[in-house]
Amino acid sequence: KSEQGDTIVQTYHYLVFPQKQGDFEIKPIEVNIGMFSRRNRGGNFFNDPFFSSGMSKPVRVVSNPVTVKVCALPAYNGKIKYSGLVGRFDIKAEIDKTSIRAGESATLSIKISGSGNIMDAGLPANGPDTDDFKVYDDTPEEDIRMTETGYEGYRLFRRAIVPVKPGHYRIGPFTLVYFDVDRAKFA
Fold it and tell me: Within 13 Å and on the Cβ side, how many CA atoms surround 29?
């Protein structure tokens, strides 16, 4: 409580990412703070707080422990490899040129965006057949930020692809399999 009797509340938010299933106890959080109180030295000019001296008293605040039950994801039996992502995600792919000569390069961009463990997003397993193309991966670009509900953002993968012989090729489609937390199933 403040000198005026107001309650002062400081809230801390933590994001936790379980690595395995089971029942877990999150230990109490301990914070040591200095509670400041004003003492009036009496006779101050109009009791102005500027002329008051303050005292700091150390206070230890401890939270309650929290028990969390972490459930396993259901078994995945799909044909396309599971990405390991959990949350809500979207994938988009585009290529900068649709007609090139053998030996020339085109840039394939694959963007995975959403919320959840986005920092773990990698290139989807399906892509250009490496027998027909030389493929050069660029360093992924990302914009990931922490919000009150978790991590959000995107990872952008660029690949220079160079056909080694003439022909008509289909690149993609690119599919991202993740566990959708809203629907509680793989998407």
Answer: 8
30 vs 50: CA distance, rounded Å: 32
- The residue type of 182 is D
Q: What is the pLDDT along the chain (187 residues), one digit of tens a residue?
A: 555 666 777 777 777 888 889 999 999 989 888 776 655 555 555 555 555 556 678 888 898 999 999 999 999 999 999 999 999 999 999 999 999 999 999 999 999 999 999 999 998 876 666 688 899 999 999 999 998 888 999 999 999 999 998 988 888 889 999 999 999 999 9
36 within 8 A of 58, measured Cβ to Cβ? no
Q: Report helix, strand or coil for 120.
A: helix
DSSP classification of residue 79: S
Indicate whether this model's pTM tops 0.90: no
